[in-house]
Specification:
- With about 150 residues, the protein is of the alpha+beta class.
- The chain is built from four helices and six strands, in the order ααββαββαββ.
- The chain has a single domain, classed as Hotdog Thioesterase (Thiol Ester Dehydrase, Chain A, Roll).
- The chain has helices spanning about 5-15, 15-20, 50-70, 105-115, and strands at about 25, 30-35, 75-90, 95-100, 120-130, 135-145.
- Strand 1 (about 25) and strand 2 form a beta hairpin.
- The mean pLDDT is about 95.
- InterPro entries: DUF4442, HotDog_dom_sf.
- This is Acyl-coenzyme A thioesterase PaaI-like protein.
Amino acid sequence: MTTPSIGQLLASTVPMARTLNLEYLETTPERAVLRLPDQPDYHNHVGGPHAGAMFTLGESASGCIVLAAFGDQLSRAVPLAVSAEIAYRKLAMGEVTATATLGRPIAEIIAELDAGQRPEFPVAVEITRADGAVTGEMSVLWTLRPNS
């Protein structure tokens, strides 16, 4: 039996994530990179990706890095997004790519979980268009909620 990839795991457990046909380019504990292909069904009024689609892309990238970093903790804690904030910086056209990075060391977060705490940690996401211009910046605050 093969172990599902982080992208397969996210798509199978979070139905919303699979609706956008996201491409999982890199999913490691250090970095997650997802691409939203250019799809007319998800365009806004000016022909670029809709803000909601860009939000879902960014939140999905943050979820992938959380699964990659803490997948071995799922038997004792559930990862949950606590809050999210996004800033749309430039007009996005065509495909866009989200790159997520953890804001705290993994070992520090697991140590808090080991101590019986409910750790919180930020994930930063940068959304770029094909020419490399940053079109959006997102911050998602996550927690690992211990199972009771």
